[in-house]
Amino acid sequence: MKIYDGPNGPEMYTTDPRVHKGKEWLDLIWEAKRICHKVKITYIESPGAEPKTLVVAPKKLCSSVKGWEVEDLPSEGFEGKMYSLENITAAEIIDETFKDPYDDPAYLIAETKYLIEKHSASKQ
Predict the structure, then answer these.
(1) How many domains does the chain have?
(2) Is the pLDDT score of 90 beyond 90?
(3) What is the pTM of this model?
(4) How many helices and strands, by DSSP H and E, does the chain display?
(5) Is 121 part of a structural domain of the chain?
(6) Confidence of residue 110 (pLDDT cuts 50, 70, 90)
(7) Which residues lie closer than 8 Å to 110 by C-beta, 6 or more apart?
């Protein structure tokens, strides 16, 4: 499987159906990330749970064997809450904006150091 940020958003090459879960929200969330606008989502945490309305600042889109997920921009630190696109039942881009942290090279360097340290600690 190959996934990368293409000129029109995330592009993937795979036949594994698990990777395509939640794909119907991918374009909308990618556009919100591109223009730095937050997204209001209706989200169901687990089967049988009550839907919640949340506002998410899409920091990253990630794909795994569980399907597509969006990472919410945390107010501090580097790891935000992850939301499975498969569990979204409604989504809309709202007027509220956010600052893309990756526009700041210092943030990118600090996040990279954090991830290296986290990875090193998990190997010990």
Answers:
(1) 1
(2) yes
(3) 0.78
(4) 2, 8
(5) no
(6) very high
(7) 78
Band (pLDDT 50/70/90 cuts) for residue 1 is very low
Domain annotation covers residue 75: yes
Q: Which two tokens stand for residue 97?
A: 């904006």
- Whether 123 is in a domain gets the answer no
Q: How far is CA 22 from the centre of its chain?
A: 12
Amino acid at 97: T
Give the domain range for residue 31.
2-99
Tokens of 103: 């526009």
Rounded CA-CA distance 109/71 in Å is: 19
pLDDT single digits (tens) 34-77:
999 999 999 999 888 999 999 999 999 988 777 889 999 999 98
Q: At 123, phi and psi to the nearest 5?
A: -85, -15
